[in-house]
Amino acid sequence: MNLWKNTYPIIVSCAKGLAPYTEQELKGMGYSIIEATENTVVIRGGMRDMMRLNLHLRTAHRVLAPLLRTECYNLRQLYDDVASIDWENLLDPDGYFTVSSVVHNSTIRDTRMPSLVTKDAIADRMRIYCAGSRPDSGPETFGASVFVYWEDIEMIVYLDTTGAPLSKRGYRRIPGEAPMQETLAAGCILASEWDPTTPFISPMCGSGTPAIEAALIALNRAPGSFKSHFGFMSIKGYDLKLPNERLKNPGRRRFGGASPAEIWKEMVQEARDAETPDRVPPILASDISEGAVEIANMNAIAAGVSRYISFSVNDFADSKIPPPPGVVFINPAYGERLGADDDLVALYGRIGDFFKQRCVGYTGCVLTGNMALSRKVGLRSKHRIPFYNGPIECRMMVYDLYEGGKTEDVPSDAEIIAELPESQRAPEPPAAADDVLSTGV
């Protein structure tokens, strides 16, 4: 197996809810979509494509090369299947690798065992084919990465070309309280259909992730340029020159004769040359917490975008709003259930007032895990886009903020209840003809 020469299906994984935006990014890069699920998108390409994807994708988590797909019934068979792969052509015997896995198989009681068995199978094969040498292994991600997906009897072994997930850009040195994941922030911005030549306002900026991601998009800065190591850098042959072949790569010139390491350096340089520092619009980030703003500013410095973001300490309702159009993005606290926290009820009402009074001509976006509270914004959303903030099922409410929006435009009780995740729905009362609410679902 020669990953540097061949083409094959490439699996791009992402968090649940982000696949449509990962697919959008891939199409924008010139790739055809073979298949998509709720958290994966499949294209076809080679290692050069994988390097490009790791550098440029904003909403993806990992870029995976499938090595083996088979039926697997137990750990003994897992060992044999993994040992059948020609690891001596993929890994350096003096290197390092890590194994991670996702397993849902009734024969497995300890979910750590598949990763341990995979590690042993790789090490044993390497000893046989490499004169007794084998790479070290452990939990760190500074070397090569192997990923095993085992669902019922279907088992797939991947070479993870990413290593530490793409969501860990490397700029968020101080996470702050309840930080928003970088890939989620990027997905929300793409879903808002923000024009990156217009203002972006983050009035509850927290640790600054949405504003930083907006600046990176407007600057056209490749998010992978922050990372010093990817899994593909530890694949055997990375530092060796390739044959002078004319491989087809969408949107890229030919790199025949160069080593993958040289190709990567040129890709990064091309990405830097394509940045547009003179086209960044006003990006404003504020928070009522001075500590949060300090953290956000430090993260923006680490990302190299602090000069493009205007930070301030103030209540969101006092935010400066440049002339429209643009996007105002708010990720408020979610609470548990409507009525459980009167302060949150008031907060969501104030968000609606802020939108109606200060943000006319903008697109307003509220990411919330509490659909009932979202009704207190007092405006009918044009979109309710599903996302997951960690394990919390959320919706991003998108509002066209025109003059004269009224509270009677809010969705009905039935619409709200239909949108509620199961965890937020109250138990149904005993059926009584007079008090059963028909929700249409």
List keywords for this structure.
441 residues; VC0802-like; Rossmann fold; 7-stranded mixed β-sheet; 11 helices; disordered C terminus
If you had to describe this structure to a student in words, what would you say it looks like?
- The protein is α/β, with parallel strands linked by helices.
- It has two domains: 1-172 and 223-274, VC0802-like; 182-222 and 276-424, Vaccinia Virus protein VP39 (Rossmann fold), CATH 3.40.50.
- Helices cover 28% and strands 20% of the residues.
- The chain is built from eleven helices and 15 strands.
- It has helices at 19-28, 47-56, 75-83, 113-129, 182-191, 209-219, 260-273, 290-303, 342-358, 371-374, 413-419; strands spanning 8-13, 35-36, 40-45, 62-71, 96-104, 136-137, 144-151, 154-160, 200-202, 283-287, 309-313, 327-330, 363-368, 383-389, 392-400.
- The chain has an eight-stranded mixed sheet, covered by helices on one side.
- Strand 12, helix 9 (342-358) and strand 13 (363-368) form a beta-alpha-beta unit.
- Helix 3 (75-83) packs parallel to helix 4 (113-129) and helix 5 crosses helix 6.
- The radius of gyration is 24 Å and the shape is elongated.
- The termini are far apart.
- Residues 246-255 and 424-441 have low confidence and may be disordered.
| Shape estimate | elongated
CATH fold node name of the largest domain: VC0802-like
Q: Taking Cα atoms only, what radius of gyration do you get, to the nearest Å?
A: 24 Å
- The helix-strand sequence is EHEEHEHEHEEEHEHHEHEEHEHEEH
